[in-house]
């Protein structure tokens, strides 16, 4: 278990029932407005996939998915998804989506190896989304423009929520800024990557940290881990807010322009994962059979936590927590569901 932050004199402001009503408002309205803003259609998505397809998200490469077998498919290993990063791109082709059309879905996952703290749970709920773009649109400007669209929707929901719960809404900055991981390393070479993110988030309020996954020049290490077979490491990033109640940065979204055949081949080599080239999804991508896309995930509970000024993600989602964490939260008036 990672360090638990207990804010001084914490006041949850809303009762549990009012919190639940606010959660419903945020989730229902955000997904509708987000879908309209980015021209995305809601689609159904799997909670588990066959291991042999290579569709599951490998995250940082060390987390083990929850897996099981089933009676009618003996010999096949079924994995609970970590995310739908690769499934979405395949779905856009399978379901006949056209240029600048896309999908979003409610993604529920189990990440059993997660380090639990105020922000992290073994239960992950997010809006996974993916949109087709042209090859020539695989640019930094396309990425930044999409980030600004997402930020605009978050700000719109904040305003709508304020009319309902003016005393409970956490005020967000009016603008999002952009910075690369190399710029962060150049500026604070002696800090860890996560300490750099805290620094830049506190300074700017809201920031999109770009280019995550490849090695940095000074340290020779990646800023953070990224699977080599969905985001293009030169065209991706995280949306991060400075979160005053906990004096920490709060990541809301990981997203990016997806790999081309060329960039995936390079990244698989860098990650020592060229064996994946034999998997069905990877074969299709390398053969140019999948559309060029941009996509990502937006944390549902994270967004609720941010907008409502909550001290713990367990206040906005039902999960499982260690007994000592529950006791500490109860003593601090943190209402774990």
From TrEMBL:
Pfam families tied to this protein: AsnA
Keyword Isomerase: no
Residue intervals of the Aminoacyl-transfer RNA synthetases class-II family profile domain: 24-322
Catalysis performed (reactions): L-aspartate + NH4(+) + ATP = L-asparagine + AMP + diphosphate + H(+)
GO MF terms held by the record: aspartate-ammonia ligase activity; ATP binding; catalytic activity, acting on a protein; transferase activity
Localization per record: Cytoplasm
Protein name: Aspartate--ammonia ligase
Species assigned in the record: Limosilactobacillus frumenti DSM 13145
């Amino acid at each position: 278990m990672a360090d638990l932050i207990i804010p001084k004199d914490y006041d949850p402001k809303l009762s549990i029932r009012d919190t639940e009503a606010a959660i419903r408002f945020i989730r229902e309205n955000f997904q509708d407005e987000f879908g309209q803003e980015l021209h995305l259609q809601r689609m159904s998505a799997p909670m588990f996939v066959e291991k042999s397809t290579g569709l599951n998200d490998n995250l940082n490469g060390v987390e083990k998915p929850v897996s099981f077998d089933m009676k009618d498919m003996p010999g096949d290993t079924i994995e609970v998804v970590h995310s739908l990063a690769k499934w979405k791109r395949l779905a856009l082709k399978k379901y006949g989506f056209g240029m600048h059309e896309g999908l979003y879905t409610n993604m529920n996952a189990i990440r059993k190896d997660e380090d639990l703290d105020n922000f992290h749970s073994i239960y992950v709920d997010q809006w996974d989304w993916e949109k087709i773009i042209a090859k020539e649109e695989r640019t930094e400007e396309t990425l930044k423009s999409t980030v600004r669209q997402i930020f605009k929707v978050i700000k719109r929901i904040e305003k709508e929520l304020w009319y309902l719960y003016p005393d409970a809404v956490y005020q967000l900055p009016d603008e999002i800024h952009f910075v690369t991981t190399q710029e962060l390393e150049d500026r604070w070479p002696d800090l860890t990557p996560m300490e750099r993110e805290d620094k830049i988030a506190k300074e700017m309020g809201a920031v999109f940290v770009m280019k995550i996954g490849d090695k940095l020049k000074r340290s020779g290490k990646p800023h953070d881990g990224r699977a080599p077979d969905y985001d293009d490491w030169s065209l991706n990033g995280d949306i991060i807010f400075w979160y005053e109640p906990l004096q920490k940065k709060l990541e809301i979204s990981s997203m990016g322009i997806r790999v081309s055949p060329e960039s995936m081949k390079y990244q698989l080599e860098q990650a020592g994962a060229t064996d994946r080239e034999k998997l069905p999804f990877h074969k299709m991508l390398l053969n140019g059979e999948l559309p060029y896309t941009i996509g990502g995930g937006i944390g549902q509970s994270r967004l609720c936590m941010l907008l409502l000024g909550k001290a713990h993600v367990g206040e906005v989602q039902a999960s499982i927590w260690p007994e000592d964490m529950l006791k500490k939260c109860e003593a601090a008036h943190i209402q774990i569901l």
